[in-house]
């Protein structure tokens, strides 16, 4: 999903990581499309760009010092524009430097700040109902800016998790207080983003029904940018969940070699992780996205970003179906026919391509999905 050209673009500062930052951070999950028009109708007062501080980040100590600067700025930033700018720079840093990923997990306060961003921006900061004195366009733009910040936060968390296999600091943070951080992250990331009340029905209609979503008629709506951003949040949340679930396997790899006290759990089950997560709400948005990715308007092989998303959606869905009775019941009641008719090994093989390295595992999880999600009539005859 391409990021919108919002009011957040114009806030730009020099990078202490000496990175050539674009005006917007481009995700590896972005899909090419026609360039959208600017959705900004506001002029905001922004702080002046800070001067370039460091130009050589080839040494570990330099990265450590620079990370400390970014960390302090993120913890003290007050406005959405400041938070977005600093987090964008951090996201670029974790993509480029594995050291930055480890430093992020070494700092529990920074993880908590990003968790707070997820919780805060899943909901609109202003009132759900627009008052007569408030400009509806301004309220809509404000929410769209928040969704951009939310998508960037989820993308940053996913990248930090992806590139830090067996990182002891990550394991410690996620396992503390009987996996409170990991369970909290799963539940928070799986939450569906809220939209202002006037757009709730539009968002629900077009994004939770596969046929409406795949028709792309929503792109002609006045609220198309809002719908596009909610979909981007769905994509980045799926990537984040996918990476977080991968850490459960890491716990089992290292569990036997770690010295664990009798009171401390070394491994957590998927069933426990999903016990209090909003799986039904997440599935209502994610399953239509998966079906649309498998059956695009233009029949062709998936791009690299779309191929990764297909694999991630299928993997997360299969894990949910195996370990969450609520998820299995919800999908069987609401999506059994869609899975039966649209989720096929042949379709996945074509969309990913025979040479794709992720094809074998994706086919495996697709077989698992189609085996578990049966129409209700077939369940009664078993």
Describe this structure in words.
- Residues 32-41 have a biased composition (Low complexity).
- Pfam families: DUF4551.
- The protein is an all-alpha fold and 382 residues long.
- Helix content is 63%, strand content 0%.
- It contains 17 helices and no strands.
- It has helices spanning 60-76, 80-96, 98-106, 108-121, 136-162, 168-190, 200-207, 210-215, 224-255, 270-274, 279-294, 304-323, 325-334, 336-342, 345-352, 359-372, 376-381.
- Helix 1 (60-76) packs antiparallel against helix 2 (80-96) and helix 4 packs parallel to helix 6 (168-190).
Brief overview, please?
The chain is mainly α. It has helices at 60-76, 80-96, 98-106, 108-121, 136-162, 168-190, 200-207, 210-215, 224-255, 270-274, 279-294, 304-323, 325-334, 336-342, 345-352, 359-372, 376-381.
What would the keywords be for this entry?
single chain; 382 residues; DUF4551; mainly alpha; globular
Record the SSE blueprint:
Elements: H1 60-76, H2 80-96, H3 98-106, H4 108-121, H5 136-162, H6 168-190, H7 200-207, H8 210-215, H9 224-255, H10 270-274, H11 279-294, H12 304-323, H13 325-334, H14 336-342, H15 345-352, H16 359-372, H17 376-381
Helix pairs in contact: 1-2, 1-3, 2-3, 2-5, 4-5, 4-6, 5-9, 6-9, 9-11, 9-12, 11-12, 12-13, 12-16, 15-16
């Amino acid at each position: 999903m391409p990021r919108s050209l919002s009011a957040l673009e114009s806030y730009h500062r020099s990078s202490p990581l000496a990175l050539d930052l674009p005006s917007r951070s481009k995700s590896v999950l972005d899909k090419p499309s026609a360039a959208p028009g600017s959705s900004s109708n506001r002029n905001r007062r922004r702080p002046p760009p800070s001067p370039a501080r460091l130009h050589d980040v080839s040494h570990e100590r330099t990265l450590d010092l620079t990370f400390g600067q970014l960390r302090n700025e993120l913890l003290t930033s007050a406005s959405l524009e400041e938070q977005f700018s600093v987090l964008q720079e951090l996201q670029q840093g974790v993509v480029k430097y594995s050291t930055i990923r480890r430093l992020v997990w070494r700092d529990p306060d920074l993880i908590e700040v990003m968790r707070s961003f997820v919780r805060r921006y899943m909901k609109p900061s202003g009132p759900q109902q627009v008052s007569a004195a408030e400009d509806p366009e301004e309220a809509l733009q404000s929410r769209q800016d928040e969704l951009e910040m939310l998508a960037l936060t989820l993308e940053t968390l996913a990248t930090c998790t992806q590139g830090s296999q067996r990182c002891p600091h990550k394991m410690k943070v996620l396992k503390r207080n009987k996996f409170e951080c990991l369970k909290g992250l799963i539940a928070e990331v799986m939450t569906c983003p809220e939209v202002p009340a006037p757009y709730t029905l539009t968002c629900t209609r077009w994004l939770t029904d596969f046929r409406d979503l795949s028709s792309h008629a929503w792109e002609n709506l006045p609220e198309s940018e809002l719908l596009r951003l909610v979909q981007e949040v769905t994509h980045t949340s799926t990537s984040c969940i996918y990476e977080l679930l991968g850490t459960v396997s890491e716990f089992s790899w290292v569990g036997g070699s770690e010295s664990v006290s009798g009171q401390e759990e070394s491994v957590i089950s998927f069933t426990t992780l999903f016990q209090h997560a909003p799986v039904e709400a997440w599935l209502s948005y994610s399953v239509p996205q998966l079906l649309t990715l498998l059956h695009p308007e233009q029949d062709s092989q998936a791009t690299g970003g779309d191929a990764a998303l297909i694999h991630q959606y299928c993997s997360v869905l299969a894990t949910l179906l195996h370990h969450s009775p609520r998820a299995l019941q919800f999908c069987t009641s609401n999506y059994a026919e869609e899975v039966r008719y649209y989720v096929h090994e042949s379709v996945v093989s074509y969309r990913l391509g025979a040479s794709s390295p992720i094809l074998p595992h994706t086919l495996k999880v697709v077989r698992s999905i189609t085996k578990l999600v049966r129409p209700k009539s077939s369940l009664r005859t078993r």
